[in-house]
Amino acid sequence: SRARPGPGGAPAARAASLAPAMAMPSPLGRQATVAHATLPAPLAGRRAALQISTCSRHSGRSRRSPIARGALGPLRLALSGSFARAVSFTWRTGKWIVAGFVVVAWPVIEILALQTRLRRRRYRPRRIILVRHGESMGNVDSTIYSRTPDSLIQLTDRGLEQGRMAGEHLRKLIGDETARFFFSPYLRTRQTLMAILQAFKHRRVQLTSEPRLREQDFGNFQDPQGMKKVYKERQKFGRFYYRFPNGEAGTDVYDRVCDFWGTLYRYMDFPPHDERYVQNFVLVTHGLLMRFFCMCYFRWTVLEFDQVWNPSNCEIWVLEKTGGGRYRLAGTWDGSSCGPIKFGADKSQPLYPHMWEYAPAREMVPGTPGVLDDPLLAHLRVPGPGSIPAAEGGCDAPRAGEVGPCRAGRRPQRGRGE
User: Fold this and answer.
1) Could you tell me the pTM of the whole model?
2) What is the pLDDT of residue 184?
3) Is the pLDDT of residue 70 over 50?
């Protein structure tokens, strides 16, 4: 029969019989066991019941653990080992595959990139043509700048005729090839452009207004008497570095022209998909901009730039593409052939040979006797201590075909646009 619960809430007889046997080992040894056995009946009954329930849970786990450890344990170990071997094999194989791909694919990528660059250079325009505007009212009467903004100066009748003649010359040079015109937003350049386009009737041409091709800013309304004083001051300070009151310095114009060269390269090498291959770029601009344009590309020094004279009205300069996709200065186009560009003190000296070609850098061997006699290095002939430099920022470069020591002297004084 089932025993009746004792006062502590557990069967007294069963608690009394199981308490000593189920007691947990203790570091106090036998004394702890004896003390536990002599507990009062209510406490002993409760402790025995707690130990019975705890042992039941442990006994349940122990009955399931052999299956888990015996059956699933080796399977888990086998799976973990197979996975590790698979990962290791994949890693070793992947490294060899990647290395082989790099060894094989890298030269192919380089070859494709080289072919892309060569293709872009091959499809650059055959020519870059620079055209100065025709004769303007400011070229005839300099006082007009005191009452008319520089951007609104118009062409004379002679200037319009010069524009039409320039169009005929361009038509002979270009023929039936495609052309894209970039032009300054000034009124005299737009009038020159329209006069040039009369020679291209019934032909499709591309037109782009480019503010960076505008004339150097000489100030706002310019008083004639005040400008004479300004030009004398510029001659002393240096034409390339002098900043006009309320206007620009030559360095500012140089910077924006070089920036325009970057845009021009993007037009050449990355044309929009809907545009055709253009064989000629024509820039209708100003004389000073034509010189700065060549200075940026051909890497003329400041001394060389100062010796190049301003082109005449509607004078045409031609840059022709060479085999490597770069450009060479062919000279002045007169409708039948390319002539020389005005250079030197008397405007009759030829350009130095290196000024016709693209030259990214100039080389020298310091300490070599006579190394600075080369016109390439004329800009390095600096004055000695205590000497007074020339007006244009240093020693004059020798004349074409002439070598010698540094010669201090002043160039002929020039006016506006020269």
Assistant:
1) 0.69
2) 98
3) yes
Pick the CATH number of 126-363 from 3.30.70.920, 3.40.50.1240, 3.30.2130.30, 3.10.50.40: 3.40.50.1240
Catalytic residues: 133, 215
The predicted-structure confidence for 328-369, as pLDDT tens digits, reads as follows: 999 999 877 888 899 998 898 999 999 999 988 888 899 888
Closest CA to 310 of 293, 287, 340, 329: 287
Q: Is 136 among the annotated ligand-binding positions? A: yes
**138 appears as a binding residue in the annotation:** yes
